[in-house]
Design brief:
Elements lengths: L2 E8 L9 E6 L13 E7 L3 E10 L2 H22 L7 H22 L6 E10 L2 E7 L3 E6 L2 E4 L6 H8 L4 H4 L28 E3 L5 E5 L1 H6 L2 H8 L5 H14 L7 E9 L15 E3 L13 H15 L2 H16 L13 H44 L1 H9 L12 E5 L4 E4 L8 E5 L4 E7 L3 E5 L5 E5 L3 E2 L22 H10 L7 H11 L9 H25 L4 H13 L14
Antiparallel strand pairs: 1-3, 1-11, 2-4, 3-12, 4-5, 5-6, 6-9, 7-8, 7-10, 10-11, 13-16, 13-19, 14-15, 16-17, 17-18
Helix pairs in contact: 1-2, 6-7, 8-9, 12-15, 13-14, 14-15
Length: 584
C-alpha cells in the first residue's frame, strides 16, 4: 500500500451559467451548506484503496450543483462496497461506476423536466502502488514526476477531436467555438449510445510522485506555463492547491476553480506507518471550531472575505486578508489548518520532519540488511577458497593445453596405405589425395585431431594425426630373400637366336642385319664394293645407335646388344662379304 498526503480546494463559482463542480475526496465532498464558502480539506491516508474524483456539470447552476451531490452519494456507496475487499477488480469497478452514475444523471434529468445536463468526471484510484484513472468529459488529471508533467487524461470534446484529425492546431483548440462541446459525458440517454470512458491509464507509482486533478477553469484558462511552474515546485500539497486557485483568480477566472493534489510519500509502507483502529485509513484534519463572539467559524468568514476580494478584484485587499489570518495564528489560533489560510512554514517543517523520520527508518532497516549480505558473501568466498585450494593451485600451475608449436617444414611419413588427405580438418570433408605407406609430407600446422600437410605434389590438405609419424614406417620392412641369380648366362647360339627373335626393330636392327648378312652372303655376292662399303657404314652406325638406345632404355636389351657386338667381333676374322641390306 502507499502512504499519501492529499489536499483539495473547491471554490464556488462567482459568475452564473458556468459548469458547477464538486469533489469526491476520500469519501468526503461538499454539501449544500458549503456552497457559499471555499471547501478545503487535507488528509493523510494509508488505505489499500484510495479514491478521489472531480465532477463538473454543464447546465443550469442550481440543477448542476444538486446533481453533483447526488453523484457523490452514489459514488460513496460504490466505494464503501469495494473498500470491504482487499483487492479491487478495476474492470468491474469502472463499469459499475460509469453505468450507475450515467443512469443517475439520466433519471435526474427526467425528474427535472428534461433539462439537459452533461457531467464530466475524472476519477483516480490508488491501489497499493498502482494508479488507475477513469476519465469522461473535459476535466483533467496530470502526473508530476522528477520535475516533469505527464497527462493522465484526454479531453473528450469536439474541438479536441478536430486536433486529433489535424483540422486545427492545439493552439487553436482553446479558442475554438466547440471547445466545451462534449463527445462523451455522464447523462447519455439510451438512444445517444453508450458512454465510452477512458480507462487505459495503468502505471506503477514511485516515491514523491504527485497527482493533480484540475477543474476546467484551471486547466483551460490559466496559462500553461504558470500552471506547470506551480505543479513542478517543491512546495507542499496545500501550498500548491492554494497557488493554483490564486493563479486562476489573478487571471480573472471566475469558475471551475477546483484542484486536488495527491502526493505519494512512500510506496514501501512500513508496519509502523499503518493506521491503527477502526479508521478506514484516512486522517482528515478537523474543521475550525466556531468562536463564541463570531457566531460561526472563521473558516466561513475567510471565504466570504475571499469572495469579496474576488468581486472587487483588488489584490492589496486580498493580501490584507492573508496578513490578518497570519496574525490570528501568531496569537495562538492553531485550528486554521483546513481554513482558507495555510501556514506554509509550519507545513514545510512538518514535511521535513516526516522525510527525516522516513529516512531514519529506512536506514535502520537497510543498513543491517546490507551488512548481513556483505558478511555472508565474504564468508562464502572464504569457504570456497578453502575447499577448492587444491583445484585452484592446479589451475594456475598447469600449462596451457594448446601450446603454439613451430611445425614449419616438419617432415612426416604416412603410416598406412590409402591414407586420405582431406580438404578441411573434418572427416566429412572432400578427399583430395591419397597417401601410401611411407610417403613423405611436410607438416605446416597441427591441431587436436588433424595436421595440415603439403605433399610432394604440392597438394595441401589435412590428415589425421594418428596416421602420421616422424619415422619412416618402411624402415623395418624386410626385403624378400633371393635364392639364386635369376639372370641366366647366355651362350653364343642363344644370343644369336634371342637377337633374331627380338620384336622391336629400333633396338635389334644391328643383330638382325648381321645374321641376315651371314645367311645371304652367297646369294648376294654380285653387289658392288662401293655399295658394300656404304652398307657397312650404315650398318655400323645403326649398330651404334641401337646399342645406345638399348642401354638407356631397359636393362633387358643390354644382353642382346652385347651379343650382337660379340657376333660382330667374331665375324671380323672372316672374309668381308658385300651385303645388300633388305629394304624395310
Amino acid at each position: 500500500m502507499s502512504k499519501t498526503v492529499s489536499t483539495c480546494i473547491c471554490e464556488t463559482n462567482l459568475i452564473p451559467n458556468n459548469p458547477q463542480e464538486n469533489v469526491f475526496f476520500h469519501t468526503l465532498y461538499r454539501h449544500q451548506q458549503d456552497f457559499t464558502s471555499e471547501f478545503v480539506r487535507t488528509a493523510n491516508s494509508t488505505s489499500p484503496i484510495q479514491i478521489c474524483a472531480l465532477f463538473s456539470t454543464q447546465g443550469p447552476d442550481n440543477l448542476g450543483a444538486f446533481l453533483n451531490l447526488e453523484l457523490n452519494k452514489e459514488l460513496e456507496k460504490i466505494v464503501g462496497d469495494v473498500s470491504k475487499n482487499s483487492v479491487l477488480d478495476f474492470d468491474s469497478f469502472s463499469k459499475r461506476v460509469i453505468n450507475t452514475l450515467n443512469i443517475k444523471v439520466c433519471d435526474f434529468v427526467v425528474n427535472k423536466g428534461g433539462t439537459p445536463l452533461k457531467t464530466s468526471m475524472t476519477l483516480v484510484v490508488i491501489e497499493g502502488d498502482i494508479l488507475r484513472v477513469i476519465n469522461v468529459g473535459n476535466t483533467r488529471a496530470v502526473l508530476i514526476r522528477d520535475g516533469r508533467i505527464f497527462s493522465l487524461s484526454e479531453e473528450q470534446t469536439v474541438a479536441h477531436r478536430y486536433v486529433k484529425m489535424g483540422v486545427i492546431t492545439p493552439e487553436q483548440e482553446a479558442t475554438h467555438p466547440e471547445n466545451m462541446t462534449l463527445t462523451q459525458y455522464l447523462g447519455k440517454m439510451p438512444q445517444d449510445g453508450q458512454v465510452l470512458a477512458d480507462t487505459k491509464v495503468h502505471l506503477k507509482l514511485r516515491d514523491n510522485d504527485e497527482i493533480c486533478i484540475m477543474g476546467i477553469g484551471i486547466s483551460k484558462k490559466v496559462p500553461a506555463s504558470l500552471r506547470n511552474r506551480v505543479l513542478v515546485g517543491s512546495s507542499s500539497t496545500e501550498v500548491k492547491c492554494k497557488e493554483l486557485v490564486s493563479a486562476a483568480f489573478n487571471n480573472e477566472v471566475k469558475a471551475g476553480m477546483t484542484a486536488i493534489v495527491i502526493k505519494i510519500e512512500s510506496v514501501f509502507l512500513l508496519p509502523g506507518d499503518a493506521v491503527i483502529g477502526g479508521d478506514p485509513g484516512h486522517e482528515v484534519a478537523p474543521e475550525k471550531k466556531k468562536n463564541s463572539y463570531e457566531g460561526e467559524s472563521s473558516y466561513t468568514d475567510f471565504t466570504k472575505e475571499n469572495q469579496a476580494a474576488d468581486r472587487d478584484d483588488t489584490k492589496p485587499f486580498r493580501e490584507d486578508i492573508y496578513s490578518r489570518q497570519a496574525s490570528k495564528e501568531e496569537a495562538g489560533d492553531t485550528t486554521m489548518f483546513n481554513s482558507g489560510k495555510i501556514n506554509a512554514d509550519q507545513v514545510e517543517k512538518g514535511r521535513k520532519k516526516k522525510v527525516e523520520k522516513k529516512e531514519s527508518k529506512l536506514k535502520n532497516v537497510l543498513i543491517p540488511i546490507l551488512i548481513l549480505i556483505l558478511f555472508a558473501g565474504l564468508g562464502y568466498l572464504i569457504m570456497f577458497i578453502i575447499f577448492n585450494a587444491a583445484h585452484l593451485i592446479d589451475f594456475f600451475d598447469k600449462k596451457p593445453k594448446d601450446q603454439v608449436v613451430d611445425v614449419e617444414s616438419v617432415v612426416m611419413y604416412a603410416i598406412n596405405d590409402n591414407t586420405p588427405v582431406y580438404a578441411e580438418d573434418s572427416v566429412d570433408a572432400a578427399i583430395i589425395a591419397v597417401l601410401n605407406k611411407g610417403d613423405v609430407v611436410s607438416r605446416t600446422d597441427v591441431g587436436e585431431s588433424f595436421s595440415k600437410i603439403r605433399t610432394a605434389d604440392e597438394v595441401e590438405g589435412y590428415v589425421l594425426n594418428v596416421q602420421l609419424s616422424e619415422e619412416d614406417p618402411t624402415i623395418t620392412d624386410e626385403l624378400p630373400e633371393i635364392e639364386s641369380d635369376p639372370t641366366p648366362v647366355p651362350t653364343e647360339e642363344e644370343t644369336t637366336t634371342t637377337v633374331a627373335e627380338t620384336e622391336p626393330e629400333e633396338t635389334t636392327t644391328a643383330a638382325t642385319e648381321a645374321t641376315t648378312a651371314a645367311t645371304t652372303a652367297a646369294a648376294e655376292a654380285t653387289t658392288t664394293t662401293t655399295t658394300a662399303a656404304e652398307t657397312s657404314a650404315t650398318t655400323a652406325e645403326s649398330t651404334t645407335e641401337s646399342t645406345t638406345e638399348a642401354t638407356t632404355t631397359t636393362a633387358a636389351t643390354e644382353a642382346p646388344t652385347e651379343s650382337t657386338t660379340v657376333a660382330s667381333t667374331s665375324d671380323e676374322n672372316q672374309t668381308p662379304i658385300n651385303v645388300q641390306p633388305e629394304e624395310t
